[in-house]
Amino acid sequence: MTFVLYLINGVSLGSIYAIIALGYTMVYGIAKMLNFAHGDVIMVGAYVCFFAMSSFRLPPIIVVPLAAGVCAALGALIEAFAYRPLRQAGSLAVLITAIGVSYLLQNTALLLWKSNPRVFTSIVGTDVIKISGLPITYVTIITILTCVAIMAGLTIFTGKTKMGKAMRACAEDKNAASLMGINVNVTISLTFAIGSSLAAIAGALLCSAYPTLSPATGSMPGIKAFTAAVFGGIGSIPGAMLGGVLLGIIEIFAKAYISTQLSDAIVFAVLIIVLLVKPAGLLGKHAHEKV
Amino acid sequence: MKKLSRAAKTDIFTYLLATAGFLAAQCIQGAGLMSSSLKGQLVPICAYVVMAISLNLTVGILGELSLGHAGFMSIGSFSGVVAAVALEPVIPAPEIRLASAMVIGAVCAGGAGILIGVPVLRLRGDYLAIVTLAFGEIVLNLTNCLYVGTDSQGLHISMLTSAEALGLASDGRVIINGPVGASGITRLSSFTAGFILILITLFIVQNLVNSRTGRAILAVRDNRISAESVGISVTKHKMIAFVLSAVLAGAAGVLFALNMNTIVPTKFNFNTSILILVFVVLGGLGKIWGSIIAAAVLTVLPEALRGFSNYRMLAYAIVLILIMLLTNSPFIKSVLGRMRVPFNGRRNT
Amino acid sequence: MNGGQTQLTPVPNVNFLPERDVGFMPILECRSLGIDFGGLTAVNDFNLAIGRMEIAGLIGPNGAGKTTVFNLLTKVYKPTRGAILLNGVDTLDKTSVQVSKMGIARTFQNIRLFVNLSVEDNVKIGLHNQIKYSEISGILRLPSYWRQEKKARDHARELLSIFDMQNLAEMKAGSLPYGAQRRLEIVRALAANPSLLLLDEPAAGMNPSETAELMDNIVKIRDTFQIAIFLIEHDMQLVMGICEGVCVVNFGNIIAKGTPNEIRNNPEVIEAYLGKGFARDFESRKH
What we know:
The structure holds 3 protein chains of 3 kinds. Chain A is mainly alpha-helical. In chain A, 73% of the residues lie in helices and 4% in strands. Chain A has one domain (2-277): ABC transporter involved in vitamin B12 uptake, BtuC, CATH 1.10.3470. Chain A has a two-stranded antiparallel ribbon. In chain A, strands 2-3 form a two-stranded antiparallel sheet. Chain B has a single domain (6-145, 186-304), classed as ABC transporter involved in vitamin B12 uptake, BtuC. In chain B, 66% of the residues lie in helices and 4% in strands. A 3-stranded antiparallel beta sheet of chain B has the order 2-1-3, covered by helices on one side. In chain B, a hairpin with a 2-residue loop joins strand 1 and strand 2. The radius of gyration of chain B is 21 Å and the shape is globular. Chain C has helices at 3-6, 66-73, 96-101, 119-126, 135-140, 143-160, 178-191, 208-225, 236-242, 260-264, 267-274, 276-286, and strands at 28-37, 40-50, 55-59, 81-86, 89-90, 104-106, 196-200, 228-232, 245-250, 253-258. In chain C, the strands form 2 sheets. Chain C has a 6-stranded mixed beta sheet with strand order 6-7-8-3-9-10, with helices on both faces. In chain C, helix 6 crosses helix 7 (178-191). In chain C, 46% of the residues are buried.
């Protein structure tokens, strides 16, 4: 019985990782960059939720879309000012810039909102319901459902819509895409906006489940979600989903059955082993170098 | 006299740069013009310089991104601290004890480098970056749960949840206390020791790069397939560079730790790995002298910005972004390209 | 059917070698070599022998699998079927590095120089396995380091002088003009001390006078170093001018082997290059 409970908690935590990992993987797919500032966008999203709820007493149904909108704008802004000028530069230059953006967001948050942690009120309350005898929080259920909905929405978006196809075209070959009349800049901006709005949603869910919020809140989930994206095969949307959920399950099980303190070491060790066996991640494709 | 090659000139310039920095710091200190906070930074600067040079070996010269370099520093630090305590009765002379601790720390870090390098260096590109990131996190997590103590019966090591589990005798002493780290460390490091470590590092790295092995490493970085086509083993040369980089980071860790009263595992987290990577990238990939300058300036900079108190890290972030944008903008590059840059040796790409 | 084809049996026939090399072990033998990529057969039933000092050509339309053959020979790809014998030794289970040490060196269709390094360093990297001193001697700069480095430098300059490039030694390889980059790649391959040199489109992008000079140099290299040369080339002047044996592939299969003259008049080759209609036309005009 407790096993099932751990499993559900694992899927729930994993769903949050998956939503964050989707942002990483979409951006990686199209811009071929590791956006280290993504974790801090989660934190910004969570703060927007926090103040909208505590200061303006807005209902969650408005708060979450608001945070998503703010972060979408933030994501597009970061892309336009920090990453776009470096599109022709080496990947390391972009990586360092992303780290700079990450510091910038964290330190701005530190100045604006101070380092003391805030207690986040859950967006869906703290009620617990019993499903066949298992106590499950609303947050858990909402998180899993949101994740499924986002996954379905993104699959339809990238597969069926014109913009989604443009995105996939840009991911494959930006020059060819622009020759076909696709506006590459708009497409990349949109990708950052979508990824960042997902980060905001993840931030709201994360802080509802683990209700402390500080400027460093986004860092560790960011790193873990990033490894989840790699775990599943970076660039692949179903891969990010699978990687995120598996990572969450492994983490919860490691905490429950092996050691609370060593859970991170176990999670990362599993990642290393997966990459050794499948160097492109679970669902990633291995690109052959043309000789 | 024979004309010196460009590479040799760059190497000599780098030795002179390090020596000039050392002498200048000694003079300022001797004249009593150095603030106490800067004085406290001298040994850490040396440690960061060695860290930056060693990471440059992996990132700039081998061309593989590593995001877990602090992990090697951590292994070096803690094994060095333990070694320094354990060797106290055997080697009373502090200089020799420091050197021995450095060797032990370097060997431990090198061992970890081999352990992680053997399976992982077959991976390419960003995947190596992720695995090194994971390695750094694993080291952090493990050192957080590590308890080491010593008593009349020798060393006790435990991965349990408290120092009591070590079962030390009454005369025992806890050296590493889990998340609290190591405290009451005897200061063995000195600025001179740091400078000597920098010189040794320069000697090893620069001579390696200008040898047959170094050329092979550069060949692997530039074009793996043609390196193999002329009979250069890619894995072997990646291993040499990666493990040597880990060894030097281990030694730097010992220097760093034996300068502190207390050292906690979280000191060597992801942010530290990133900080060192920033030194390497800003100093210029493959440019050893660039790493020295970047590490020294960027360690002093937050201290210098202390007047701005809360804004200093914000300023640091903005400076970092602006430098990256400016140095990579096509316009600035074309202007720089027209000027002749001195010491444009063959590794300075 | 002409004489060239009747000599060719599935097992490479050593009698097909140039007269000079008959009676010696062929430097290269491919036996029923083949590779599949997924369901696609890129090379199939490839049989060939190359003499100890032969200059052999490999031609065929684009996408015929020529470069794939080179990639199989240098173990960039692992063959699905068949065997490769270098100087009579099977190279099954050998890696790129090992076959390089066994005496095979190559150039690449899309030039693969170490563009950030100097011309001299590119050649010295080719000399890697000829320079003998340990990592430790290198770091400590023991006498063996200085001795061997001096030797390597002289040897590199000597090799560069084949193409009259010794004055470019200090330049960055990436900043050389295109033709010089192609020549440098040949020098680098030669530095690896091969007994079989593979050249992948050495004359690509060269003008006729450069090509003529290259042809002279290829023959000179063969005569000086006493090695075999196997080259892929689209320039028929070059192939017909210097190759002693020519092998034609199309869709991964050998469609003809023979002397340049035999190949020139082979209807299947003409068809592969120019299409069916033209081949018929060509045949009828001959009569």
